[in-house]
Design a protein that fits this description.
Length: about 140
Amino acid sequence: MRRIHDELIDRRPEINIVPMIDVTFALLTFFILATLFLTKSEGLPVNLPVSSQARLQQEPVRMTISVDLAGKVYVDKTEVAVSALGPQLAEAKRKNPNTLVVLNADGGVTHDRVVAVLDQIRSVPGLKMAIATKRP
């Protein structure tokens, strides 16, 4: 009995890293496969025909309309009158049909001021619009 006890005490402790390597490779495989499924595909994979008149997809031009607490209206940090907003947006839409207008209005601005700006934006047919908010 004493001999078995002495053999257990004399043994050097070992750290077996093979299970750790197995777990690491399993996690690595999981993350690689997960990232493959996170890609965004907007259509079926097809071989597109070649055209000399093909165009690259146009990125939308982003215009920011800001209404500060005093009710002043700005287009990309330049102050404008509300009445001049419609023609300016129509010109931007004519130059680039993909124009996106983002409305940043202070929370303390009166409702009628924001509605006046929205009316000018909506006076341009087909103009894309977004209203900026922040998360709670």
